[in-house]
Amino acid sequence: xxxxxxxxxxxxxxxxxxxxxxxxxxxxxxxxxxxxxxxxxxxxxxxxxxxxxxxxxxxxxxxxxxxxxxxxxxxxxxxxxxxxxxxxxxxxxxxxxxxxxxxxxxxxxxxxxxxxxxxxxxxxxxxxxxxxxxxxxxxxxxxxxxxxxxxxxxxxxxxxxxxxxxxxxxxxxxxxxxxxxxxxxxxx
Length: 188
Hints:
iron, Ferritin, Ferritin_DPS_dom, disordered C terminus
């Protein structure tokens, strides 16, 4: 049987848990929305799989926080879940900085919860939040590294395109020396 305590969480902790759960559900929706934006083979289907996985992870973490509330008889209402409002994104490189910003905000919200739980001497909640913060920081660093890798890859591709061009050709593929005929440039 699951751990049940007759004492509800202090209001500050209950509100913090609700806020973390709602924000994780929001990020889960963002990840899923992005995953379906990048499913075409030309974009990066492997990236879409990663985003779908992260959506499931965030959703499960949100459910864990809600279980904390349920065990302590603190669920009065389901947290408000904001829907992802993401416009069309052309590449993962353009989406990742926004995702990192969301993850940083979630980290701040979780740190606030940990502080509230520490003040209220809620040791189980503090430990659970600390463990998730470690995972959260690893995940955020991974995303930041992905941004750097994508930038390096793009710089490499651009240098490669420039080195493949004849001296008189522009990067767009137009040959400026032969009266407008186009050169056949393939993407790396």
